[in-house]
Amino acid sequence: MKIVLVVDPELPLGLIANTAAYLSFSLGQSLENMLAQDAIDSLGRVHMGTSPITMPILKADKELLKSIFEKASQNSDITIMDFTNIAQKHRVYSEYIEEIKDTPIVDLEYLGLALFGAKKAVNSLTGSLPLLR
Questions:
Q1: pTM of full prediction above 0.85
Q2: Can you list the pairs that 38-42 forms with residues at least 24 positions away whose Cβ atoms lie under 8 Å?
Q3: Which of 28, 77, 90, 130 could cysteine-pair with 121, CB 3.0–4.6 Å?
């Protein structure tokens, strides 16, 4: 299995961090058993388990993000989490739900995506993307 985050590199740094955090948290909540066991250090302190699957953060512009979303949403082997311009502007989730249902698809801008699935399926959509640096 593979997880990748894909984020628009043109976003301000704070919004890149926020997008990656939102996507990671949301995807993690939707998947079962995604944390490894806790680790204990030499002083006996607990370090909570993290994902045993690495999560590279890749970059793609808004048009490519939209294309990846469209392709991934048609592939049953991929779980996709998206973060759009509509989600980013709302502080109240119910307002987001109301606005997105009335927003034409052409007006959605994808700030970032998280993809989880079979390595081959995820690589087919993201394998040529560069790391976000």
A1: yes
A2: none
A3: 77
